[in-house]
Amino acid sequence: MKQRLGSSDLEIAPLVLGGNVFGWTADRAASFAVLDAFVAGGGTMIDTADVYSAWVPGHRGGESEAMIGEWLKASGKRDDVLIATKVGMLPGEGGEKLAPARIAAACEASLKRLGTDRIDLYFAHQDDEDTPQQAVLEAFGRLVDAGKIRVVGASNFHAARLKSANEAARAAGLPRYDVLQPEYNLVSRHRFEGELQDYCVEQNVGVVPYYGLASGFLTGKYRSRDDLSKSVRGGRMGELLEGKGGEVLKALDAVAAETGATLAQISLAWLIAQDGVTAPIASATSVSQVEELLPAMTLSLSTEQLDRLTTAGA
Length: 314
Description:
Elements: E1 3-4, E2 11-12, E3 16-18, H1 28-40, E4 45-47, H2 63-75, E5 82-87, H3 100-114, E6 119-124, H4 133-145, E7 149-155, H5 159-172, E8 179-181, H6 195-203, E9 206-207, H7 234-259, H8 263-272, E10 281-283, H9 287-293, H10 303-312
Parallel strand pairs: 3-4, 3-10, 4-5, 5-6, 6-7, 7-8, 8-9
Antiparallel strand pairs: 1-2
């Protein structure tokens, strides 16, 4: 079931567990239970970031990494999982964004919170046009050489910048961005499809999309204006309902009736089937949610069903 992640030496199951909720909407007990259930169900990669969850009043960032670190220590499962984290959105020692000194300091802080000697996949969380791309890649290269990180990835990069960074890496003999983490799902496709997707396929850059369920919209939770009060994200859900979201939900309902799968499972299976995508990222705050997500890894949709879903979200 594992697939190689781009041209890196990492092999992962086709679903990545999002760690943004750990230490935020999932407390210690819930976080540990979710992590245990994910690994027991065949999951292999956990995705987090140093900035999770600095947006919460009283939080400073690092809460998710620290929670995962506690679980790794308590469970003894460090060698059973791959850890992905990110740098570039949490300012601190060494500066901000992707300043080389910031990358070095942030990596040390992440390693300490995670309680590990290595980060399997280290993402530039966002592009930094103020720092030369070669300087950024040199900073990541020093971490690779030191054995502190294994693979370098990019999140939220446009096609032109990903291309130019990887061209600079090749010219200077530096590690390239082997993995991309874009926003991508059935109702948000413009940030990935087209030039960026084509580049990733052509250059064998592994893709692990975030917002795979569109913040819950693709679970079918929001079907009318009355449902928008169910979440602080209601405003965004209203925009989706007024756009192509309604047609996507109809198509998902039809495929669900044909397969017996849930809308979340179908949405993730559609992503897994897209060119270049290795594994979408999805978060969970309970074991029951994990148990619903896991079957997406083995759900096979017909070409006709995939086409219908694609057309609905076009």
